[in-house]
């Protein structure tokens, strides 16, 4: 694997999640694999779970990890070809990525969208420029439009939880209220991974919150939350801002998920990628119940990162 | 040992300091003990000595270390049960601590007091919520009211310095001037550790600067600095703000410790936890003299951290 | 080697660069050398290449690395002897450096100039105080006036590139435009290293941009850029602010290096320490051409750091 930026980079998502679960059972079974190899983690935006879980995954494989927390002040990168750099940018991605590629065997990078310009965000300029110039394998640690390590962890969580062999689980992604405009990345990514894994996926959200169709083709889109939740086995709660009216958010507190709303899906498990705004996105009663898988999802971030690193190390 | 937050978590302080000194003599004697174990260090407030000494201690035991520098902007935690999180907090401690507990085998956390609300600070809400939800052993890296790793290092320093077998050393904690209102943590903690170790402890400070009695019961409280310093073997210099008039500080520059004040304790050693405001808290002549133990105290932070980690690893 | 702050600390620059190239060929050949040794990297100013390359070099030698990013808010150090510390500084370098010396076997420190007071900057107060009080070997990670790790990497780059045995290469350091006032450190340092290595060095810059003569004695100073560039084998492009009119900068965009200016040095290689302002200091066409050595220079930062650490470890 030379890059991990989308489900499209993965030949077989089910076998990848199986391998991740094998690593979960034997975390140090491959600890010689990363000997003398360096993972560079570049954060253009802050991170908690992603940094810590990736670091843990890499050290369990025997790698050295170097973390670079970049903020706009410290290392403003230029991305435009041919730019005359007499302004605020201090280094071109060509030079920065190429240098990092000499120091690291694998690079992970986090780069959020600006949510101002849809074409720019969906072109994934930062991520793609890094891939182009780094010269080493690159892992998305959440890009402008996708968060594949989260989705792989989500898939692992569903697969280790679901024990019924006779039928596929019914998975529902439900939009949740939030006080801020958030990226579509987690939702886009969850949709494309669930569909690639052959899950029965429904997506429910207020009208106007449709995700980009490229990611959701094959899922049922249902504007009525109650209807969508019926008989759900896994309910993924997540806010996102509008793709159509780009970056716009809605004030619809009635979309908060509560116990009462799950009266027709009494066995449904609750998922969220964290951090979660309690009693805004979903209620304490759900998060604190045995239904909740959120801590398992956080845990599975380790094995998602570890299996991706393993695949890349195998090919170095 | 499942937590290290106070002297009360330690069955026998003398034997713990003996074990620390044994590690000082053979730092790498236990380097297999922490293999495949991860220490997470969470700093809600800045740190220098604590972070570096804990990191060094952990790596000498073979552990991996992950540092999380948290500031209010980056990761504002919610601590109130049942909070509707539509404000500035972005994650509840329940979720943050539980996730960290999946990534780390032991967690260290630093969380200073606000010095605004005494009940809140002395309830140690942050520390206790982390302990409650992390699910792994927790070490205080200085909490709102105590700094046990510093006090253990101080005890180690006194015990390795004191060679007279016939009598216990006379230890004096003296309040010092400062330009800022500081927590009571180092002073509270030093008092409780000295008393637990059976030292002859006097505490001297201006009236109104009494520490919480829970920590000082058994010590002589003397408001006359000259009288307290007489024949002292160890003189611990430290500023703290008022416990009674909570968070209030005093402008009393005459409390600065100088050579002249030690005319009746000519052999007394000088201690301070650092960082020290020179010529405000105590004079250059003392800090730069052979009396000063401050760099040994800083050094002994390593062995304090290492013995605590060892005890926790022994029980994992 | 007890310190690495200038070419003067190196007995033989050619043999040092030979040893660095040997490490480049066998990066892990000395990985037992740094076992149980700790490198502390203290950044008073931000860093990217220097931190990452030093960290990589140290771990390849088996060392543990601890990074301390210090900014003015977090850890304002006092450097004046006898200061009454009732102001903004929170710790004296005497105490801070001595404590760090207990935690680390080797310390690297970065401390840029203020560019306000020439005498102060050129006295290298911060670096020298750290050396005086740390009690362990100290490496400059770029000080107020010199950047020896960069210059060693530059020398390595020239020596691995230059294959003609009959004559010495002609090396030209050319001043470049920039929008900010930059230190003289890279230029001072490049000059002293090239001269110590016996290179044929010319320096070209606008009048008034003369570097301190201590560093350039033995080089030709040429104010006419075209004349200086003629038949150059290596052209080092760098901005610096004025040493004479201290910290002052010039607006002279016509000094930007372009392909057209190299019509009489068609084989000359282009060097720059990065980060580079493209199309301000030099043109895209040069940076993106096969002439450019800038990424090799960045790569060679690893081996420069590694050979210096090796020399220090050899003597611990």
Protein architecture, described:
The first copy, chain A, has 316 residues and is α/β, with parallel strands linked by helices. Chain A is 35% helix and 15% strand. Chain A has two domains: 3-146 and 301-314, Aspartate/ornithine carbamoyltransferase (Rossmann fold), CATH 3.40.50; 150-297, Rossmann fold. In chain A, helix 3 (93-103) crosses helix 5 (125-134). At the A-B interface, helix 2 and helix 11 of A face strand 3, strand 5 and helix 3 of B.
Secondary-structure topology with pairs:
Three copies of one chain form a homotrimer.
Chain A: E1 3-4, H1 13-25, E2 38-43, H2 49-60, E3 64-69, E4 77-78, E5 91-92, H3 93-103, E6 106-110, H4 118-122, H5 125-134, E7 138-140, H6 148-161, E8 170-175, H7 185-196, E9 200-204, H8 213-216, E10 220-222, H9 225-229, E11 234-238, E12 269-271, H10 284-287, H11 294-314
Parallel strand pairs in A: 1-7, 2-3, 2-6, 4-5, 6-7, 8-9, 8-11, 9-10, 11-12
Q: What percent strand of chain A?
A: 15-25%
How many distinct folded domains of chain A?
A: 2
Look up the CATH topology of the largest domain in chain A.
Rossmann fold
Strand order of the largest sheet of chain A: 1-7-6-2-3
CATH class of the largest domain in chain A: Alpha Beta
Helix content range of chain A? 25-40%
Q: Give the full name of the CATH homologous superfamily of the largest domain in chain A.
A: Aspartate/ornithine carbamoyltransferase
Q: By helix and strand content of chain A, what is the structural category?
A: alpha/beta
Number of helices of chain A: 11
């Amino acid at each position: 694997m030379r890059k991990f930026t989308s489900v499209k980079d993965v030949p077989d998502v089910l076998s990848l999640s199986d391998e991740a679960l094998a690593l979960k059972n034997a975390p140090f079974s491959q600890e010689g694999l990363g000997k003398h190899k360096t993972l560079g983690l570049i954060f253009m935006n802050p991170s908690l779970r992603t940094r810590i879980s990736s670091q843990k995954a890499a050290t369990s494989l025997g790698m050295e990890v170097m973390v670079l927390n970049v903020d706009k002040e410290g290392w403003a990168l230029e991305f435009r070809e041919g730019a005359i750099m007499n302004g605020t940018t201090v280094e071109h991605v060509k030079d920065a990525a190429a240098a990092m590629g000499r120091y690291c065997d694998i690079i992970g990078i986090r780069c959020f969208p600006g949510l101002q310009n849809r074409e720019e965000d969906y072109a994934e300029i930062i991520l793609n420029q890094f891939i182009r110039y780094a010269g080493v394998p690159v892992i998305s640690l959440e890009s402008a439009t996708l968060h594949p390590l989260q989705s792989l962890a989500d898939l692992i969580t569903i697969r280790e939880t679901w024990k019924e062999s006779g039928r596929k689980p019914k998975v529902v992604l439900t939009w949740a209220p939030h006080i801020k405009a958030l990226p579509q990345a987690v939702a886009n990514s969850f949709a494309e991974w669930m569909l690639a894994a052959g899950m029965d996926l429904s997506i429910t959200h207020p009208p106007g919150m449709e995700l980009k169709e490229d990611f959701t083709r094959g899922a049922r889109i249902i504007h009525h939350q109650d209807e969508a939740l019926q008989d759900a086995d896994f309910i993924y709660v997540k806010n996102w801002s509008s793709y159509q009216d780009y970056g716009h958010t809605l004030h619809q507190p009635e979309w908060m998920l509560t116990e009462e709303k799950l009266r027709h899906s009494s066995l449904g498990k609750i998922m969220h990628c964290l951090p979660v705004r309690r009693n805004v996105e979903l209620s304490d009663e759900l998060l604190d119940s045995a239904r909740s898988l959120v801590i398992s999802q956080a845990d599975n971030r380790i094995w998602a990162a570890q299996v991706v690193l393993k695949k890349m190390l195998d090919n170095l």
